[in-house]
């Protein structure tokens, strides 16, 4: 009889904590998206015993997969601007788990040793920057926004589009040589933790700040109550997020191990997220 009770208790505990269940997290192939997804994955595995898959999907596909229940979580919805169309189509079917980061932004940046502070000042510094904006991929949303900026501000600049990796390499080389460079930037990103750079003020608000929201499939909160409560608590400041991204970027380990290294280096913050009372239901 005692053995039977013990087995039933263990099974009930396993169900309550999510033990031996698999959760699927949809994530675009972006540094901040993969970092946040892996952070959640490590904590879900460690705290509740889940097996967690991080599946690389585009933003639109991630919204669609979570709304349909094919994926359990999408933790990198940029709202209310960048992903507005996807949210309008799929978001109403998703459950919201709060905001992971409140001041996400894209824009144009320069090293702090340059005197430019605002986009409106750039035409006075055309020669300094060679009339060039060092950019990322030509089809990126940020590139399209930059074209709007050039037109609205009447800038005498052209966009030199390349890969994100090549842009970051150009930024690093310029800063090492203390040369002027005007480039695409976004927060959160490890570049703000590694380099002394600043985002230029946008008086016309073409580049607007927004939040990185956490979404779950329909019924997730009911099916995984404790996990949902923990996920709702996960939130990062700019310094914390950039430090997480830099830890991953500079680590010789894989992403999962690098994230675990960051978790162990930030016990007080993690405790706030994972602190909970014991309950079978």
From TrEMBL:
Signal peptide residues on this chain, from the entry's feature table:
1-20
One GO molecular function term of this record is: amine transmembrane transporter activity
Where is this protein chiefly located?
membrane
> Which GO CC terms are listed, alphabetically?
ATP-binding cassette (ABC) transporter complex
Q: Please name the CDD domains in this protein's record.
A: PBP2_OpuAC_like (cd13639)
Question: Where does the record say this protein resides?
Answer: Cell membrane
**Which Pfam families does the entry mention?**
OpuAC
> What organism does this protein naturally occur in?
Coraliomargarita sinensis
Record flagged with keyword Membrane? yes
The ABC-type glycine betaine transport system substrate-binding domain covers: 22-264
What name does the UniProt record give this protein? Answer: Glycine/betaine ABC transporter
Sorted alphabetically, the keyword list is: Cell membrane, Membrane, Signal, Transport
Any single GO BP term? choline transport
**Does the entry feature the keyword Signal, yes or no?**
yes
